[in-house]
Amino acid sequence: MTRTLYDKLVDAHRVCDLPDGGMLVYVDFHIMNEYTSPQAFSGLDSKALAVRRPEAHLAVIDHVNATRSQEPHDAASKLLIDNLEANCTRHGIAFYGLGDRRQGIEHVVVPEQGLVAPGMLIACGDSHTTTYGAFGALGFGIGTSEVEHVLASQTLRYKRLKTMLVEVDGHLPPGATAKDIIMKVINVVGAGGANGFAVEFAGSAIREQNMPGRMTICNMAVELGARAALIAADAKAYRAAAGRAHSDMLHFDTEAWVSEPDAEFDQVFRIDAGDIAPLVSWGTSPDQSVPIDGAVPFATPDMPPGAKAALTRALEYMGLEQGQPAQSIHIDSAFIGSCTNSRIEDLRAAADILRGRKVAQGVGAIVVPGSALTRMQAEAEGLDRVFIEAGFDWRPESGCSMCLAMNDDIARDGERVASSTNRNFEGRQGRGARTHLMSPAMVAAAAIAGHLADVRAFQQEIS
Amino acid sequence: MPGTVTGLAAPLALTNVDTDVIMPKRFLITISREGLADGAFADLRFDDTGNIRPDFILNRAPWSDATILVVGDNFGCGSSREHAVWGMRQLGIDACIGTGFAGIFYDNARKNGLALPVVSAEARDAFLQLAGSENGVGFSVDIRDRTIRAGEMTIPFSMDDATRYALIHGADDTRDTLAYADAIQAYEDGLADGMRVSVIK
């Protein structure tokens, strides 16, 4: 029988079948953060259970910490941070806390430390764990009860997903990036279009992407509802997994981690990369996006009532009018960061636009590097100077920060943010905050212009 | 949970209700599972000064007593936060009827006894309308025979066997899985050295 990459990964990790129709799968590596793990540890305590393999887990502080300094900004966040460290010390689990040069956003830290390799199964109490599919590894987010389950048993109860192939062929036009590929896919497939599916991305435009780009694509695949995202492991993936702190210890080479050529998928989408322009989200769901030279959509007479209601509600929340050109949307702030787009390549792309230019008056701009090591690399390249001279607030510490505003980076009611992040939900960046998703270079362009702007105009000037 | 959930149903037709809306982040800075009832749908239930929004369905009689929600497509999308389900349970919600749910939310619900019956869009729309009738309507969600009964309607729903079993029996997955310790050990014994992750401290 010919198998998809997803099926190979599930088969390789199947421990046993369960009488309820599911199976147990083995978790090679499990990552924890400070906000979805406390109740898992207290669950273990209340059941008097031990951690089965403490060495197979890593805990990182990233969600609630301030990024202005290592000092927690309030007592509640300090409690979460201290609690995770205490739990890790008690159970003998590796802990990369504030001040540790290996600290950062979990999904930036893991590849940086060589803790992902093709063929692995990785779980984490964070939905963006799909990121690891970029390496041909099966990564997925879990809830806190499942965190407890992995700690105690090193397994998860699992039900095989349906499979979807998203093929993106052709070449991206200038200005379009991996972020635009995934925003386009979400726009086409829909925000819940891949609920119940594992999505494999294939095609020449995917193969052409470098590893950070592939991570951006797999990262945001969860916004399709995909419980897993995958890209065939090729030489690029093996190279990126090599030469890092843990690389030499990890070898999962029991299979070629690719779908067999005639493997069948339950659903297939094909997208022409040549049709992908730099995109911006206008609404409150990641599938509500338009090309930067386009406009906010109109309600149409043939729209189902539910879709019309969603459009109206999104426009009201976002303070926008139907038909309004995207580039007429003025911003109050700009944010570059998050597990989607805060790697060194993202910072370089934004810096290329900012070099020699200034952030528009009245726009507050923040950049939070994805990890401490990313920040040091950026500083070694002089990127921090570029951001600072342009008027950005260059943060000395790493974390999720304003992507989900669990620390003190909270947008005000009505504040409009150009953001390199992954979710434009109501209230995501602060109560009443208005988020526009786009690539890091597009955020830089918007910061300079003071409104959503076409990065291609800035790039032409440079060349 | 008994095999059947009964109670008044409230219509919540919004599509893509994400876990940021179900449980805003300011309620997440906690190491407890408790105390989350006030956080559930907080920005829909309360305005920014903490006053009740009288027009929101769960703030209106009789739906303020609802224990079942009829929801829009893709309910529970977004973040993995189980706090969303804890808060809904603490608010007294026992079941959510929809056309499809985000995967992590679905699994979190099962772990906490929140039933998520999946029906067709036509059935959901009919349930939305029925639930919104004046004076409200009692629904009965029978997990055992996978059927929803409400008003004149009797509609089958889909739910995978493992979830159905867990909801009926109130299983503790962690303890139950540890009964398979021998199988887990056998799997681990078969792993090559390079397949046993050991994180550098």
Any guess at the CATH architecture of chain B?
A: Alpha-Beta Barrel
CATH superfamily annotation of the largest domain in chain A: Aconitase, domain 3
- Runs of chain B with pLDDT <50, length 5+? none
Low confidence ranges of chain A: none
- Count all strands of chain A and give the number: 19
Query: Which strand order do you get reading across the main beta sheet of chain A?
Result: 5-4-3-6-7
Report on this structure:
The complex is a heterodimer of chains A (463) and B (201). By secondary structure, chain A is of the alpha/beta class. Chain A has helices at 5-13, 38-46, 75-91, 106-112, 144-153, 178-189, 204-208, 211-220, 235-241, 305-318, 344-354, 372-380, 383-390, 440-449, 455-462, and strands at residues 14-17, 23-26, 29-32, 57-60, 94-96, 121-124, 138-141, 155-158, 162-169, 197-202, 228-231, 267-272, 279-281, 289-291, 333-336, 364-367, 393-394, 416-419, 434-437. Chain A is built from 15 helices and 19 strands. Chain A has a 5-stranded parallel β-sheet, covered by helices on one side. In chain A, helix 2 (38-46) packs across helix 5 (144-153), helix 11 packs across helix 13 (383-390) and helix 11 (344-354) packs parallel to helix 14 (440-449). The longest helix of chain A is centred in the first third of the chain and has 17 residues, at 75-91. The radius of gyration of chain A is 21 Å and the shape is globular. In chain A, 62% of the residues are buried. Chain B has 201 residues and is of the alpha/beta class. Chain B has one domain (4-172): Aconitase, domain 4, CATH 3.20.19. Chain B contains 8 helices and 6 strands. Chain B has a 6-stranded mixed β-sheet. Chain B is globular. The interface between A and B is large, with 83 and 63 residues.
